[in-house]
Every structure is written in C-alpha cells, then in structure tokens.
Sequence to fold (248 residues):
Amino acid sequence: MAAVLRFFRTCWNAVLEVLYPTCCVVCQTKLLENEVIVCPECMASIPLTEHAILDQNGIDLLFQDLIHKERRTIHYERGAAFAFYNRERGQNFRLMIERGKFGSHPNPQIFYFLGRLAAQAYIDSDLFDDIDCLVPVPLHPRRLRERGFNQAEWICKGLSEVLHIPVDTEHLIRTRNNAHQSRSQFEKRQDNVKDIFAVRFPEEWKNKHLLLVDDVITSGSTMLACMKQMTPIRGCRISVFALGWAHN
Ligand SMILES: [Zn+2]
Fold:
C-alpha cells in the first residue's frame, strides 16, 4: 500500500513540476532539485559588500555621520549590509528584492532565503556577537495587509534559522504610515519618519543588544528613527543589518 502511495505521489510531483516548474526568480531558468529561489549563476552575481571583513564599513560611517548630526547620544554599536543594492552589476540582486515585495505575487520566501544566505556569509564575523534578539523594522499595518507579510521579519526568520538568535516582533511598533517616503531629500525623509515608531514594554529591553533589520538601507533615516526610540532604554545597545545598501 505504501509503495502504491509513493508511486502516486511521485507521479503527482512530476505532473506539478511540468505544470509549475520551479524557476529562478531572476532569470526564470528551471532550478535543479537541490536549488531554491535563485539559480547558482544569479546567486554568484550578488554584489557583496564584504562588510564582514572590514573593521569600519560604509554602514558604520553612514550612521556615525547621522548620529553626529543629531547632536545627541544614540547607542549605535555596529552595522553591515549584505550586498550593494543599486550598482549596475547589482541588477539581479535588486530584482530579487523587488520581486519579493512587489508585483502580483510578493514572495516572503525570497527574504527568508536571502536572510539565511546573509547569515552564512557573516557567521564568522563579529556582527552577531552578543546580540540578544533580531528586531525587524515594522511595516505599517495597512502595508502589511496589502503585501501580506513584512519582508524584514522574513529576513530575520532566515537569519534566526542559521544563528539561533530569537526574533522580536512585539516591542518595536509602527504608529502611523509615512505617506511620502519616496521624496528624496534627507530632511524630508527625516520629517516623514519622525515619531512613527514606538517601543512597547521598554523595560524588557533594558541592557539588551538588539540587531535592527531591514531589507534595504538608503538614507538611513528609517533605522535612525527606530534607534531614537530605543536609545532612552537603559543599557540598550543597537546594531543594524540590511540585505541591501543603496549606496552611490
Ligand atoms: Zn537565475
């Protein structure tokens, strides 16, 4: 009986494979049995930042500069991004992120996959040393309803799977939608994200080292707004990580 069931399951899987072949999300090449989400060629084309092996990287410099302009204490520890987002050679990587978030079939598995990949790339660096929990930058509930998932949360799930660090989606919340996020001037972006985040039960984050996670860092204003809410918590330290860095 089991053999018959196995036979029918194999046939059914073969039919599914013909009807819905699993293809690379970037180039649509059919994936082999041990490949998921992205084919080896597209994976090899991801323009890695190599922040893992640098003492001070571009993300550190970005946030040190932003914090200096704030003229107040923000407990930033360290940061990194997995890959360059907007370089010409990074076109495939950008497509992975865009196809994960937009279009008719947003796919959270792309972010889970990239989170795992990034964790494996950074596992020997000190980026994740003494991190107590991974904190995804929250999406506004309306955006969450439209997309069906928060990509930053799925990146955290991928990181967590490899690093065995828990994900915290309870404390950092979004209080309102920022309507004009696409406006480019930094001051406008800062205005847009001012006070849109809040921390619930802040006493539970006392003396914790948190890794704030998002899909792409552009101006850094969104993560800075989160840090401002986290910094008043006694002993709370913040590091940051993103899959992409939109750096020119
Ligand atoms: Zn491909």
